[in-house]
Amino acid sequence: MPIVYLVWGLRYLNVGENLNIAAQKTVSGLVEQGAYNIRTTNSLFGGQLGARYRRTWGRFGYEATSNAGIFGNDAQGSQSVTDFPISRYGRTCQAAKVELLLWAKRTSRPSIA
After folding, report:
1. pTM (two decimals)
2. How big, in percent rounded to 5, are the helix, strand and coil portions of the chain?
3. What letter would DSSP give residue 106?
């Protein structure tokens, strides 16, 4: 007998990265320093809907699952460069993205009654 399940859920994923590079150089007894710093963050969030279909015949059966979701991504980044003697550059950027994700799976396994 076939069985259909409706599935739904929310997803959230936060990923951040930092990269810091520092340098030193001695020229005529003076120490010069520099730095390059990068920082990024991504926050993915959204909802998904789906269905799961299960069919069994005695000890045998199969299952199919399908999901679809709409997700937003809040991406932010900044970078700065510092060099001696005091020169500095900095930049910040932001972006957003909405995406549709489709996924399907089919597995075959025996059914335990």
Report:
1. 0.51
2. 0, 90, 10
3. E
